[in-house]
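Box 4.2: Ligand-aware structure prediction
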Amino acid sequence: MPNSKPQKLKINEVGTRDGLQNEPIFVDTDDKIALVDELSGLGYAKIEVTSFTSPSAIPALRDAEVVMHRIQRMPGVVYTALIPNVRGGDRALECGVDEFNLVMSASETHNLANLRMTRSQSLTQLADVVRLAHNAQVPVNISLSCVFGCPMEGEVSESEVINLVGKFAELGAVGVTLCDTTGMAYPTQVTQVCEAVLKAYPGLNVTGHFHNTRGMGLTNVLAALQAGVTQFDMSLGGIGGCPYAPGASGNVATEDVVHMLNCMGYDTGLQIEGLIAAAHHLEALIGHDLPAQVSRSGPRLTRHDPPAGFEEIRERAWNREQSKGQI
Ligand code: COA
Ligand code: ZN
């Protein structure tokens, strides 16, 4: 818990990538650009703008180049994108992304379903993409899916996770994102795995990426924080999910997580009012209710009018109190 000086946390918005990739409708390119521009002014450390994946695999983000080129970049914000292979890396470099976010899964089955490669093939590909990025002096983060369980295989072993993170460190990645792709993580597991990764690779930036599929998203964020993780991915409105992971649903909602962390005294750099306004804009774009809570309820000190007839209730109560006092 923070004491005198608030602890600074880095908040990464992934709604325009993890979020929109799982929406059935194609959000208009201009609307995507306007949304990223709105988010840019809110105080995020990083925005995952889009993904340079195959347009047949992720049709919702087939406009990656146009979006990346036309957003207004705010100094201090890192603009990243998801990249599955060398082709994606080439496309991202042409758009001048600030960071590559590469991806592979800790589960063999999910890696095959999502990327159509074995994990061993993915590692070879990753090395090629890292080389490409490093030649262009672009830093690399690697998102590891299904760290806390796989919807097709079940448990994923912690030693396998540590082993893969070690390979990413050897490749020269500056960071790793531990992804709970389908909300299978639970708090004690999160603390244990995050502590183990931080201890084994203290030089890596470790980011927590949780989905709220089973309602444990916020507690998992706290568990990761307790383990020493200070960077988190989250998605405005709580939308999101991997289309190639059965049962996937939304990320932890940015407004819910930031609301909690701000209440607890952490410095997230984000104000809740701006997030709520952006969430309402997003809701209008995707045309359905958001899973998030705080964009509907408002922050905890939101004041409501008392019920109808309240004046009369109060007067009667006061009168009773007074007549009692006179006895
Ligand atoms: N960008 C654009 N097009 C790409 C591409 C990329 N990064 N990578 C491959 N393609 C194209 C190929 O040119 C080919 O096109 P064609 O059919 O018109 O010739 C087609 O996609 C298939 O290429 P191939 O190399 O055989 O890829 P694949 O079918 O084995 O798919 C991936 C591999 C990784 C490209 C694909 O599975 C993918 O994009 N997955 C991303 C999944 C994802 O983002 N999940 C959610 C996030 S975790
Ligand atoms: Zn995700």
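In the box above, the bound molecule is zinc ion. The chain has a mean pLDDT of 97.
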